[in-house]
Amino acid sequence: MSRKISAIAIIGFALLVVLGTVHPAMAQAAATPSPATPYSKMAPIDQYLMADRAAEIALARSAAPESISRDAEVMILGRHGFETAVKGKNGFVCAVGRSWTSTVDAEFWNPKVRVPACVNAAAARSYLLRVNKETEWGLAGRTPAQMNEAISAAIARKELPPMEPGAMCYMMSKEGYGGDSVPHWPSHLMFFYSDTDLASWGANLPGSPVVGVNDPVEHLTQFVVVVQRWSDGSEYHEGPAAEHHH
After folding, report:
1. Which long-range contacts link 213-217 to residues 24+ away (Cβ below 8 Å)?
2. Is residue 180 part of a domain?
3. Is residue 100 within 8 Å of 134, Cβ to Cβ?
4. Residue 48 pLDDT level (bands cut at 50, 70, 90)
5. How many angstroms separate the CA atoms of 204 and 213, rounded?
6. For residue 71, how many other CB atoms are within 10 A of its CB?
7. Phi, psi (deg, nearest 5) at residue 22
């Protein structure tokens, strides 16, 4: 997932759970990284990889209900980027995001981050291309500033396409790890657009279940909707019952 978007959206989830609504200014302030962080540099690459191939495939599939993920393509992380481990039949693609694309700036190098996601065909042809590029750059040791510059340049050169209509993603796993700031995210769906007005979805308004974030660098708009069940069908509960199982 886009790192800058995720940094704000993750905090938005936490605010949504605690307050029942999200205020953009609060989300932005909460997402500001602390100067003190244990993740000041890249860890050895092996720490970002999962030695158990079957476990990574299962974790990736846990992002979506089994009726969707069982026929999805599955990608696992190799030393230079994501690689196809299982060919799919339904257009969906499941993978486990790492810190470069799936947590706040202060944890950019956190090797413990594991975030399962399953995108549909439209997102696989647009949004996922960005995730793959950013993952390759992260493994190559690029800093957040270098990555921002690279993604902006790639979009300007039209090497990466705008979001395709209907692009979306399931993130309904009980498992995974979002980082020390917000270890486990609520079960939710994500919808991707290019430069879309947040008001068109009623995002971030009092009482609205929709969290919305615009990223002008990536020309990316992301809407997040929390859902009431995990991918295995069990009910999602806010508070202590929804804590991360790691």
Report:
1. 213/5, 213/8, 213/9, 213/12, 213/24, 213/27, 215/2, 215/4, 215/5, 217/4, 217/148, 217/151, 217/152
2. yes
3. yes
4. very high
5. 9
6. 14
7. -135, 130
For residue range 97-149, list pLDDT tens digits in order.
999 998 888 899 999 999 999 999 999 999 999 999 999 999 999 998 999 89
Q: Helix (H, G, I), strand (E, B), or coil: what is residue 191? A: strand
For the record, the structure tokens of 70 come out as 């069982």
Residue 12 lies in a domain: yes
Number of domains making up the chain: 1
Widest CA span of the chain, in angstroms?
Answer: 46
Tokens of 10: 């993750």
> How sure is the predictor about 10, in pLDDT bands with cuts at 50, 70 and 90?
low
Residue 106 lies in a domain: yes
Q: What is the mean pLDDT of the chain?
A: 86
Domain-embedded: residue 51: no
Helix (H), strand (E) at residue 67: helix 66-69
Q: Where are the alpha helices (DSSP H) in 95-212?
A: 99-102, 121-124, 127-139, 144-156
> What residue numbers bound the domain in which 99 lies?
3-31+59-239
This prediction has a pTM of 0.86
Burial of 143 (0-12, 13-18, 19+ CB in 10 A): middle
219 CB-side CA count, 13 A = 14
* Entry field: residues in the chain: 246
Residue 41 in tokens? 């540099």
Q: Is the pLDDT of residue 245 over 50?
A: no
Q: Which amino acid appears at position 186 of this protein? A: P
Give CA–CA dist 17/67, Å, rounded. 28
Token pair for 24: 């953009």
Tell me the C-alpha distance between 190 and 225, whole Å: 7
Identity at 193, one-letter amino acid code? Y
